[in-house]
Each structure stands twice: as structure tokens, then as C-alpha cells.
From TrEMBL:
Residues 25-197 form the Exonuclease domain. Keywords: Nucleotidyltransferase, Transferase. GO terms for molecular function: DNA-directed DNA polymerase activity. The gene is txxe 2074-dnaQ_1. Its EC number is 2.7.7.7. It comes from the Bacteria. This is DNA polymerase III, epsilon chain. It is an enzyme of class 2 (transferase).
């Protein structure tokens, strides 16, 4: 798989091939962090839910706080509800990561903005601690949407996908890793339904597919 940065607003992905998509088992996950920069911020929470190829979530979920090596800024505390005093008693990243790896097992990993933030952040944390990053395939719901709906010129943000698919989201906490993982799971389920309706059984992105990057609002 190859990702080329086109501009501050877009990137292109190519070389992504996933056969028998609907036969796969998935682990949908999300991360919270000390900030929005995957090159310098640190993970504060991991949440995940396992799903089958039919798009249905499994009962047992995964959630853990992670103790970061730097303080959580006050705006991020307000946004995520994760306070420094809570994180101070949480496991360090290596312990939390090992538990997540056991939960995810060999399933395909799925997340939102995975090629822009969650994937790079997770790989960086692994590198800082001398740990191997996940070996299994990582899929990004933004890319899955862009592949199925190339005619739509909107940023496939979480809020946009909620509106587009008419997903119920009011019962889940936002900016909470498990709450957002469950929400991404609902998005994945609707994407899999759309793929079935369109007769898409395999993903074959051989020519560059352009994807709009997430746009972050400033925190105050």
C-alpha cells in the first residue's frame, strides 16, 4: 500500500487490495491522545470492538486508559473527559498495547482517519517503546467510503458519515475511545451494506484514489 501526500487537504492511496471483504473479521478501534499531532502527541486511551463480516458487533468490547509521558493539556481534558489524575493511575503504553493486541488477535483493524492519525500515532508509540506495530491489515473508513462513493466530494468525516448513513449516535459518548470505536463500527456496518448493494466483494485500489483529509477545529 502506498500513500502520497497531494496537499494539506488531500492524499492519494494506491496498492490496496482486500479480497473477500465480507468474509473478514474486524477489530474496530479508536485512540484518544494528548493532542491532534501524530508526530509528537501520545495515546491516552484505546477503545475497540470486534465485528464479523456481517457487520454485527460482538458483545465483549475493549477499553483502557493509557498513562502518557507528558501532561494532558487542559483543552484536551475538557474535550475527552480524561483528566491527568485519571491517567496517572493508568497502565503505561506497552501494557495497554499488549492487551489490545490480544483482544484484536489477527483480525483486520479498522478505524476512522487511520492513515492520517490513528495508524501513524500507534506506529510511533510502538517505535518509542521498541514494540512491533500491528502486522495485520489496517483499513480506514474514509478510504472505504471514497472507494464506494467516488462521486461524492465531501470530506468523509465522522459527522458527515453519520448524516450520510442516517446513523443513530446520540447514545454514544464522543471523543471517548470506546464510544467512538462503537460509532465507527456502526459506520463500517453501513459501509459493508453499501458494498453488498453495489456488488463490491473485493477492494482493488490499483490506481491512485484521492481522499480528502480531516479538518480539525481549533481547541479553545
Amino acid at each position: 500500500m502506498r500513500i502520497e501526500q497531494v496537499s494539506d487537504a488531500e492524499y492519494e492511496i494506491s496498492g490496496l487490495i482486500v479480497e473477500r471483504l465480507h468474509e473478514r473479521r474486524f477489530c474496530v478501534f479508536d485512540l484518544e491522545a494528548t493532542g491532534p499531532d501524530a508526530t509528537r502527541d501520545h495515546i491516552t486511551q484505546i477503545g475497540a470492538v470486534r465485528m464479523g463480516g456481517n457487520g454485527g458487533p460482538e458483545p465483549r468490547t475493549f477499553a483502557t486508559l493509557v498513562r502518557p509521558p507528558i501532561p494532558i493539556p487542559e483543552p484536551i481534558e475538557r474535550l475527552t473527559g480524561i483528566r491527568n489524575e485519571d491517567a496517572a493511575h493508568a497502565p503505561l503504553f506497552p501494557e495497554a498495547y499488549r492487551s489490545f493486541r490480544v483482544y484484536a488477535a489477527d483480525r483486520v483493524l479498522v478505524t476512522q482517519a487511520g492513515y492520517e492519525f490513528n495508524g501513524p500515532l500507534l506506529r510511533r508509540e510502538c517505535g518509542l517503546h521498541g514494540l512491533d506495530p500491528p502486522e495485520q491489515l489496517l483499513l480506514d473508513t474514509k478510504v472505504l467510503f471514497a472507494y464506494a462513493f467516488p462521486e461524492i466530494d465531501e470530506i468523509p468525516s465522522t459527522d458527515f458519515l453519520i448524516r450520510f448513513f442516517g446513523i443513530e449516535a446520540g447514545d454514544l459518548p464522543r471523543h471517548d475511545a470506546l464510544g467512538d470505536a462503537l460509532l465507527i463500527g456502526r459506520i463500517l456496518s453501513r459501509l459493508l451494506d453499501a458494498y453488498r448493494e453495489k456488488g463490491i466483494a473485493d477492494i482493488r485500489i490499483t490506481e491512485p484514489l484521492r481522499v480528502k483529509k480531516m479538518r480539525l477545529e481549533p481547541l479553545v
